[in-house]
Amino acid sequence: MRPFTHFDASSTSDAASTASAGGALFIAGGTDVLGTLKDEILPTYPRRLVNLKSIEGLDYIKEEGDVVKIGPLVTLEALAEDETVRSRFACLAAAAERVSGPTQRKMGTIGGNICQMHRCWYFRTPENRFPCLRKGGDTCFAFTGDSRYHSIFGAEQGCIAASPHDTAPALIALDATIQTTSASYSAADFFAVNGARSNVLQDGEVVTEIQIPNRETRSAFQKFAERKAIDFPLVNCAAASSSEGVRLVLGGVFPMPLRMPDAEAALAGGISEGSAGAAADAVVALAKPLSKNAYKVEIARALVGRTLLEIA
Ligand SMILES: Cc1cc2nc3c(=O)[nH]c(=O)nc-3n(C[C@H](O)[C@H](O)[C@H](O)COP(=O)(O)OP(=O)(O)OC[C@H]3O[C@@H](n4cnc5c(N)ncnc54)[C@H](O)[C@@H]3O)c2cc1C
After folding, report:
1. What value does the mean pLDDT take over residues 105-123?
2. Which residue of 91, 180, 205, 302 is surrounded by the most CB atoms within 10 Å?
3. Confidence category of residue 216, pLDDT binned at 50, 70, 90
4. 14 touches 92 (CB < 8 A)
5. Which of 76-80, 85-89, 145-149, 150-154 has the lowest mean pLDDT?
6. Contact 147/156 with Cβ under 8 angstroms?
7. Which residues lie across from 26 on neighbouring strands?
């Protein structure tokens, strides 16, 4: 690891103004960011880490009017165990519960989970040996190389790394809003980037709160990984059904979590075995797997069916 300075922020605006000077990265639980520094995967090494955990009072989960508010420093363990989240937003509790293993869930935060960098093995190779598109280079090495863990939905151009976050599909399915120090994004727009960044945040922008509409919702989350413990999703799926219809979102299949409107349309008359099967068919009809990852299409089909039948 190379030397860097460590700055304990006292507030989100303090963190934002310190980091916006450039050459800085935020650190929350550190379960992702420290690995990127140890392996030296980034083209420019940060001179400074801006610690968010030194900011008091950002680890709340509270109901306020028609939203539930979640602070960015809530750990995945706390999220998975919280009674409000478990009873209202089952898909989010289940997603948090399936992230990695107990130690990462104790340290890792919801803010860090949605802001983590992608997991492509070319991008993550130590010492920045593959200067790929995600690092500002001009080649996606996975596209002509080994794409077995990569996108299956039409990422023929640009980066084909698959979205790694377990909580992101749940937040999109629940129609969450992500507040930052300078803007407010619907969760569906927060990840809408296919290139050098994993999300829309600008340098120095801090996620300050996640808000979820507090309405009657039935929801579920399913994940398939090679190993049951401590493994990123090959595919994950979240579905949420409310008076506004069903929202269905897949992760691990595209550079960002992917909402599936055609599948949602198949569920307009309600969720049954028949409509869940039709939704799963609508999902896989759009798949365009690469040479080594067609197996993920059948996983996606199975997960969509299972997730929907869980809330039928
Ligand atoms: C072995 C292993 C297994 C893992 N398995 C999974 C898995 O199964 N599923 C999964 O989803 N993830 C997994 N992860 C990734 C990671 O542990 C989790 O995503 C965790 O939630 C990250 O949270 P953190 O607080 O530790 O983030 P950090 O490492 O502190 O930060 C991650 C990134 O987010 C940025 N960041 C953090 N907080 C904020 C904020 N409030 N505003 C703006 N930027 C911010 C940081 O600058 C950094 O770029 C795994 C990691 C490891 C090492």
Report:
1. 97
2. 91
3. very high
4. no
5. 150-154
6. no
7. 50
> For residue 63, what are the β-bridge partners?
68
Distance between CA atoms of residues 87 and 262, nearest Å: 28
Contact call for residues 171 and 187 (beta carbons, < 8 A)? yes
Ligand 1 pocket check for 162: Cβ under 6 Å: no
**Look-up: residue for tokens 């596209």?**
143
Q: CA 180, 184, 188 angle in degrees (round to 5)?
A: 110
| Model confidence pLDDT, tens digit, residues 125-179 | 999 999 999 988 999 999 889 999 999 997 667 899 999 999 999 999 999 999 9
What is the 3 state secondary structure string of 197-209? CCCCCCCCCCEEE
Give the Cα separation of 27 and 1 in Å (integer): 15
198 CA → ligand 1 middle, Å: 12
Is 241 in contact with 231 (CB distance < 8 Å)? no
Instruction: Supply the residue whose CA is at minimum distance from atom 31 of ligand 1.
Output: 112
Strands, DSSP E only, in 150-233?
A: 177-180, 184-186, 207-213, 218-224
Q: Is the distance from CB of 108 to CB of 52 less than 8 angstroms?
A: no
Residue 119: what residue type? R
pLDDT digits (tens, 9 = 90+) for 92-103: 999 999 999 999
Atom of ligand 1 nearest to the CA of 28: 30
Distance from C-alpha of 171 to C-alpha of 236, rounded to nearest angstrom: 13
Q: Is the pTM of this model over 0.90?
A: yes
CB 304 within 8 Å of CB 250: yes
Work out the mean pLDDT of the chain and round it to a whole number: 95
